[in-house]
Specification:
The chain contains eight helices and six strands; from the N terminus they run E-E-H-H-E-E-H-H-H-H-H-E-H-E. It is an alpha/beta fold.
Length: about 220
Amino acid sequence: LAGWRGDGHTAELPPAPPLEPGPLVLVDRPGSVQSSLRLALPAVPRTHPDHAALQLANLIFGGYFSSRWVENIREDKGYTYGPHSLVEHSVAGSVLVAGADVATEVTAPAMVETLYELGRLATVPPKPEELEQARQYALGTLQLGMSTQAGLASLTSAYAGNGLRLGFLAEHAARLAAATVDDVAEVAARYLAPARAVTVVLGDAARVADSLAALAPVRTETP
C-alpha cells in the first residue's frame, strides 16, 4: 500500500435541474395487480432557512405513521399498507418524494386523496396540535439518531456530504423547536402545492388510464 495516496481532487457537480410539472406520466405495466404512485416536489438543502419548517410540513403530510396521508389512504380507506414521503438530499439538490403502492382498482381514488392532502396542507394552516406532534417526533428521532455509535456515524457521514459539521445538529434542533404554524403553512404553500408535483404512475394502462385522465392530462409510456 506504500504507493497509495490520500490526495483528493475537486469535482464540480452541476445542480439538478428544477422539477418541471407536466402531464401525469403513466408507465404501462400490462396485467399488473398494483399501481406504484410516485410524486416529486421541490425541496431545499439542509442549510436553507426553510428546511426545518419543510421537514415538519412533510411529517404532517406523509412523513411518519401519524401523518394525514397515512391516516387517509391506509387507516381510513385501506388503499395501501405503507405510504410514505421524505425529503431526499444529495450533492446535486434536494427533492421531496411521496410514494405508495395501491391495488390497480383504486389507483385513481388513491391519487385523488393524495392530491387532496397536498392541497389541503398547501392552502390551510395545520392545527397547532398537529405541528407539536410532528415537532416532538422530529426532535425525538434526531436524539435517537445520535444515541448509538452507528447512528452518530451515519449522521456524520450524511452531514459531511453537505459540508456540515455535527454542530449543525444543535442548530437544526433549535430551528425545529422554533418553527411556528405560520412558518409551516408558508413552506407548505411554497413547496407542497400539487400543481408543483411531477407525478409518475407505474401500472396497467388499460385499466387505469381513463380514470387517471379524469384527474389530469396523462402521457402513457412503455418501459
